[in-house]
Fold this sequence. Notes:
- Helices cover 40% and strands 14% of the residues.
- It has helices at residues 5-27, 42-57, 73-85, 104-109, 122-129, 138-149, 169-178, 193-198, 255-272, and strands at residues 32-38, 61-67, 91-94, 158-162, 182-186, 202-205, 223-226, 247-248.
- Helix 6 (138-149) crosses helix 7 and helix 6 (138-149) packs across helix 9.
- The chain is globular, with a radius of gyration of 18 Å.
- One of its GO terms (cellular component) is cytosol.
Amino acid sequence: MLMSGTELARDIVQRASEKAAEYTSRTGRKPCLATVIVGDDPASVTYVRMKQNRCRKAGLDSVHVALPASTTTEELVARIRALSDDPAVHGILLQHPVPGHIDERSAFEAIVPHKDVDGVTTHSFAAMSFGHNEFVSCTPGGIVRLLDAYDVEIAGKHAVVIGRSPILGKPAAMLLLARDATVTICHSKTAGLAEIVRTADIIVAAVGRPRLVRGGWIKPGAVVVDAGYNEGNVGDVDFEAAAHAGLITPVPGGVGPTTIAVLLEQTVDAATRQPDA
Length: 277
Ligand code: NAP
């Protein structure tokens, strides 16, 4: 059975859009997301454009800061601090990844926590880990929403997260742990990956390697969330060989749409949580 992110995302965006309209009629302003991109990586440019378009369609404003690939860490941090201080901006998204010479962590930390609608700061990570109701990392947040939408029991289950990036694998593991799963995090140095994955009730693949997870790694009835997105619309899971999974997300149309929906939802929440809202 498929877990459709497209349908869930439609519901989340619809509710966010209604909340944005209420906010606008109350304040005369629209919730506003600032997107920041450094360099011209084609995939990143497309992702940011999609996020801006979805904002507009849902009744949000968006401002865009495009910086050249030669931008220094100090310059990027200064631009993000300015957005953090700008009362017209409610949420800030720095598109990951930034060019290698930039200290991405410093740039993320320049986002003031109450505008961290992409859930990338240390503050948000800690809040996520403690199960506090603050901003979650959008892709992991979308993953948990998908599991909930399909009534997947998380508590007491063995969840294996493959990948430990700060925007995806680690926060996904923290959100699942906060929901009482027993969590194993795997990465490129993990020995015996296939054997570990075979013990999973819930698999979250967040690697960026096409079809890394083979059909034989999946326990019959397991729930498979494929967050990977590789060239040619291919996920991290061998979808054709996973017919014995209990539930599985398609690629595309699985995790991807929920990521943007959670971003929009959190931007509207950021606006409505401000003292003058
Ligand atoms: P990343 O920063 O490159 O992290 C990849 C992770 O996978 C790392 O932790 C790495 O381990 C691990 N890894 C690499 N090769 C492995 C292997 N052979 N076995 C086990 N683990 C391995 O990537 P990311 O930003 O987290 O993104 C991962 C995937 O998700 C990509 O396909 C990306 O396009 C997709 N993504 C989708 C969305 C969405 O909205 N759907 C959002 C973000 C990302 P080490 O830590 O040891 O290097």
